[in-house]
Amino acid sequence: MAYEVEKTDEEWRAELTPEEYAVLRQAGTERAFTGEYDASDEPGTYHCRACDAALFEADTKFHSGCGWPSFYQPITDTIEYLEDHSHGMKRVEVRCKRCGSHLGHVFPDGFGTPTGDRYCINSISLRHTPAHESPQQQG
């Protein structure tokens, strides 16, 4: 798939830390309960760490107890969904629709949320913009 933001592997490696690259570009997963946004409740917007696309509003974030930031709904038309059969499981991977970076997975077990979904997202895939700061340009 062609993305709005496309870079060479060398460009991604130069812009991202090795840890960010492993998750965002190689579909890795950070260890549970280690990410900076797991327990965060600060208002604002969560953006893709690789391309700064706005992905999730903080008011859709909830504490699922899974060890990763959980959201019940992304900002409209910002997420790409892919079947993931890795590690002997059948899951739905979610990626940034603007740059194709791996964010995490979505599960239909967000009980008690308005959508019933749990977007389980790696903190390292995100950058939080506090509500009091002006929105950043996407392009």
What would a concise description of this structure say?
With 139 residues, this protein is mainly β. It is 10% helix and 29% strand. The two termini are 19 Å apart.
Q: Could you please say which CATH topology applies here?
A: Metal Binding Protein, Guanine Nucleotide Exchange Factor, Chain A
Topology, number of strands: 9
Strand order of the largest sheet: 3-4-8-7-6-5
The rough form would be described as globular
Given helix and strand content, the structural type is: mainly beta
Question: Biggest sheet, open or closed, and with what strands and sense?
Answer: 6 strands, antiparallel
User: What is the chain-wise order of helices and strands?
Assistant: HHEEEEEEEEE
The average pLDDT score comes to 92
Number of helices: 2
Q: Which oligomeric state applies?
A: single chain
Question: What does this protein structure show overall?
Answer:
By secondary structure, this protein is mostly beta strands. It has one domain: Beta Complex (Metal Binding Protein, Guanine Nucleotide Exchange Factor, Chain A). The chain is built from two helices and nine strands; from the N terminus they run ααβββββββββ. The relative contact order is 0.25.
